[in-house]
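User: quick one, sequence for these tokens?
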């Protein structure tokens, strides 16, 4: 059975480690992103993550597979939390097992960035002044904003005389 990549419950780190199942791996890199109490000078009380869950799950599994292929690492696990989160709660956890530290670190950074910018997961922050806002930078894919490659092709006209 496939491991969960989205969770409406608090994220537990220990089950992600699998320390005894990859004896060929001497490196384990882990990133854990938690909810902080401020953003752009504003006091944050809590936040809510929402997602297009079927698509987010597909994207995260693709990112895991791409990281395994690209960095030649046997184990990549990502879990992203959804729902209401308090300050200090884990929002995302990534664990990579690799034969050496270099590819473990590289794959971990790649995975976290790819999920943050590619998965359809949105973060709404709730502030001390009673307001809230969706945070820019979550699920923003730059490649979707680019015009089509041949959309603005200029044609030169020459006379053949």
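Assistant:
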């Amino acid at each position: 059975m496939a491991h969960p990549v989205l969770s409406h419950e608090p994220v537990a780190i220990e089950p992600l480690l699998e320390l005894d199942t990859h004896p060929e791996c001497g490196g384990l890199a882990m990133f854990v992103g938690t909810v902080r109490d401020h953003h752009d000078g504003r006091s944050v009380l809590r936040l809510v993550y929402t997602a297009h869950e079927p698509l987010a799950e597909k994207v995260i599994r693709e990112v895991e597979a791409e990281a395994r292929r690209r960095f030649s690492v046997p184990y990549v696990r990502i879990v992203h939390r959804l729902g209401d989160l308090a300050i200090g709660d884990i929002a995302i956890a990534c664990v990579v097992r690799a034969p050496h530290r270099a590819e473990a670190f590289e794959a971990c950074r790649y995975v976290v960035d790819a999920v943050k910018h590619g998965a359809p997961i949105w973060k709404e922050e709730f502030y001390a002044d009673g307001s809230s806002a969706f945070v820019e930078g979550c699920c923003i894919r730059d490649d979707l904003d680019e015009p089509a490659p041949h959309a603005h092709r200029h044609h030169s006209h020459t006379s053949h005389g």
